[in-house]
Structures are given as C-alpha cells and as structure tokens.
Write a structure and sequence with these properties.
Pfam families: CLN3
Subcellular location: Endomembrane system; Lysosome membrane
Main location: membrane
CATH topology: Growth Hormone, Chain: A
CATH class: Mainly Alpha
Protein name: Battenin
Distance between the termini: 68 Å
Number of strands: 2
CATH superfamily: MFS general substrate transporter like domains
Helix content: 55-70%
Structural class: mainly alpha
Oligomer: single chain
Number of domains: 1
InterPro entries: Battenin_disease_Cln3, Battenin_disease_Cln3_subgr, MFS_trans_sf
C-alpha cells in the first residue's frame, strides 16, 4: 500500500497501517516472480542493451581509421590506407583537403578531429531525447521496438549499398535515431519490471563496447565478411529479446496505451521518494501534464547534471584527446594506439556498468568531479607531453571507463529505486538526455580544441 494512500481516520491505528503495508508487500508481483522469470527479464534487457548500442560503438571506435583513410586519399605524400570496414561495409566520408599547417605540428593529427564523427552520430539522438519524453507516452512499446528495429535495419541497408557520402550520412542518422529512441524507450520500459533489469540493460550496453571492439579486430585481419547479414541478425535479435525473451507483466501496455486513473495532487508533486527502495512492478502509468513533467525534471537534476558533466569530460577525452595521445617510440602504430585506448575504455565501461549489484553509489557528483580531474590531467599530458610511457595512459583510460560506466548505471538505478511508481517511467526516459547532452557539448568543444593543438609547432 502506498504511503500517501494510507487512511488517516482515527479508527485505524498505526499498527493497522503496518499490517496493511506488510500484506501489500506480500502480495507484490515482484515478490512472487520465480527465479526463471527474473533471469529471463535480466537476459532480455542485457540483449536489448547490446543490440541498441552496438552500431554506435562501432562508429566511434573506428573514427580515427575513417579520418586517416580520407587524409590518405587526398594527400599523395602519405601512404595509401586500406578502407576501414564498419558493419561489413567500406565506409566513405567526404574528402578533406590536406592542410599543410598540420604537417609541422608536434602531434600526428588528422585535418579533422574525430569529434566530427561523434557529432554526426549523436546530434539526431539529442533531438530525440529532448523532445520525445513529452509525447512518446502516446506510442506503445511494441511500436517503438518495431521502429527501432526498422531504423537500425535501414541504416545497415543504406550504408551497405551506399554510392555516395550523403547516403552514408543518412545511414548514420538512421542508426542514431534507432539508438536514441531505443535508450529512451528501454529505460522507460524497465519501470514495468523488477529494478534489477536496470543492471541488465547497463551491462548489455557495456557489452556492446566489447563486442564492437572484437568485430573491428576481426575486420582488420580479414575475418569479417562484407555482408549486412550479421547486422540484420542483430536487428532480429532485438525483436526476439523484446517479444520472446522478456516476460511481459500484465501492467505493460500492449499495442495501445491505456489511460491511467487520476492521481492525487500530492502524489503528482513527488517526483522522487526519500530514500525508499521500490522493488514492486508498476501497476499503471500516470498521464502527466506539461507542468508536472517540468516539475519532475527539476527533481531529477541532482542526478542529471552530474551525469551530463561525467559524459562531457569523458567524451572530451575520447574524441578530443585520444588521437593526440600519441607515443612515436612505441611499438604500436598510431592507429593501433587509438584502438587500444578505445578497447580499454570499453572494458572499463563494461566492468562498472555490470557492478551495480555489488556496489551502489548515491553521490554521482563525486564521480563527476573525479572524471573532470581525469580530463584535466590528460589534457595537460597532451599539451606538455610529460607522460614517459603509453602504459600510464592505458591506466588513466581504463579508470576513465570505470568512472563513466559507474555514473551511468548508478544514476538510473537510483532514479528507478527512488521514483514513485507512477512517475518512474517518465523519470527514467527524461533523465537519459543527460549523457547525450554532455557528449554533444564535448564534441562541439573538441573540434576547435583539436584545430588549436594541431597548429602548435
């Protein structure tokens, strides 16, 4: 029984309230779920996270190779680079005129920052996440999953048969739409299940990074066929995960949305409950007005702002500094160093996004502060070039991934546990704009910073 629904009549004592609360707890659907159902739902969300983030990871992990290929194609003084294979396809980006001012730089720079790839992949997602929380409730989850699957399949098909740069860009936009809509929808979907599925989703998104690095490694040694069948299989897997693996609770709307019963004013003004651990399934979803949604977002800022800061610092490192953290005396080529940076980062993310059942963190701002310090140290290392060994950078990047993954999973775990039942779905969907906003701002900053650093003698 909900606290704000308790009777306050004098004929009912506090002990009666306690008894009623115990009876409600015993009758909670989540308490009666068997172990098989719990594991199926955990596995379903893990697979959804894996499928949703895979293409996004592939694109960013190979950003340096893509730009190197374009530079090699326009500068005849450089050796010809082999095409980078992404998702079974030879990707082509616009030709970039060689800028001689980069040739005398202290850094081994591409004319264009890898942040350009980041912005192309993240801006459509940002638009979706900013706008969708205010109307997405009108679209049932079954339709959303189909849209995610179709846009993902469309991106694979467009890129596979692309005959020009604009077709390739259109394919990237389709992939971004699929990823953004998927994250917003699946986080909201988790509100209808036991809170443990949050860790399954987060771990799956971290697993996408590991799988993406593995696939890129296979393509570089010629073991991955140039065929979109593998990408189509991931699209089908997303649909199987939702329609076949998940055990849908009765409260989950099917092909149409059901209007929720009216909510008390007091309940509408409580976006987060104080330190309460909610484990029960949702029984209905509240229809909220614009004012209520704005009020809820204000209550979520204590988590959204630190998460945005974490991702701003994180992607400032990834897309602004990774390329410039180059050690000429290392046995690894520049492209190989960049790939190792991405691999270690994804490993750290996977470990920490899978750790919430072992370690839960309430104060996300601490992680944000640590990530900012990490970004500052690595920026100084790029500017003054004082790191004597690449292995020191490896340690910092693994640490960066651990901080970023911990921030993500703990933010949504805290929101899921602290939100009142009828507001949890909207809260989770609205909060997911934070990481995308931080990533977009970091990409916008990283491009001019890259140009400045690459012109230093």
């Amino acid at each position: 029984m909900r606290r704000n629904d308790r009777s306050v009549n004098g004929s009912e004592s506090d002990s009666d309230d306690d008894d009623n609360e115990v009876e409600s707890h015993v009758a909670s659907p989540s308490e009666t779920q068997d172990v098989t159902t719990r594991w199926r739902n955990f596995a379903g969300f893990w697979l959804l996270g894996l499928c949703n983030n895979f293409a996004y990871v592939i694109m960013l992990s190979a950003a340096h190779d893509i730009l190197s290929q374009q530079q090699a194609g326009t500068n005849t003084t450089l050796p010809t680079a082999q095409p980078t294979v992404l998702n079974g396809t030879d990707w082509e980006l616009p030709s970039i005129a060689a800028d001689n001012s980069f040739n005398t730089s202290r850094y081994d720079c591409n004319p264009v920052s890898t942040a350009a790839i980041l912005l192309a992949d993240i801006l459509p997602t940002l638009v979706i996440k900013f706008s969708a929380p205010f109307f997405i409730h009108l679209i049932p989850y079954s339709i959303r999953v189909l849209l995610c699957s179709l846009t993902a399949a469309g991106s694979f098909i467009i890129v596979s048969f692309s005959t020009g740069i604009w077709m390739s860009i259109l394919g990237v936009v389709f992939a971004s739409v699929s990823s953004g809509l998927g994250e917003l929808s699946f986080l909201g979907l988790s509100s209808f299940f036991h809170s443990s599925v949050i860790s399954g989703w987060s771990s799956g998104t971290g697993g996408a990074g590991i799988l993406g690095r593995l696939v890129l490694g296979l393509t570089q040694v010629g073991l991955s066929p140039k065929h979109p069948a593998g990408d189509a299989a991931r699209t089908v897997l997303m649909m199987i995960s939702y329609f076949g693996v998940l055990v849908h609770p009765p409260s989950l709307p099917g092909w149409s949305r059901k209007r929720a019963p009216p909510q008390t004013d007091r309940e509408a003004r409580r976006p987060l409950l104080d330190e309460e651990d909610h484990q029960e399934d949702i029984t209905y979803t509240e229809t909220l007005g614009l004012k209520e949604k704005v009020f809820i977002v204000r209550g979520l800022l204590k988590y959204m702002i630190p998460l945005a800061v974490v991702y701003f610092a994180e992607y400032f490192i990834n897309q602004g500094l990774f390329e410039l953290l180059y050690f000429p005396k290392s046995n690894l080529k520049h492209s190989a160093q960049y790939r190792w940076y991405q691999t270690l980062y994804q490993l750290g993310v996977f470990i920490s996004r899978s750790s919430v059942n072992c370690l839960q963190i309430k104060k996300i701002w601490i992680l944000a502060a640590l990530q900012c310090v990490n970004a500052l140290v690595l920026f100084l290392a790029v500017y003054y070039q004082f790191f004597p060994s690449i292995f020191i950078v490896f340690a910092f990047i693994l640490y960066e991934g651990l901080l970023g993954g911990a921030s993500y999973v703990n933010t949504f775990n805290n929101i899921s546990r602290e939100s009142s039942d009828s507001l949890r779905e909207f809260s989770l969907g609205a909060a997911c704009v934070s990481d995308t906003l931080g990533i977009s701002l970091s990409g916008a900053l990283a491009i001019p910073l890259h140009d400045y650093l690459c012109r230093l003698p």
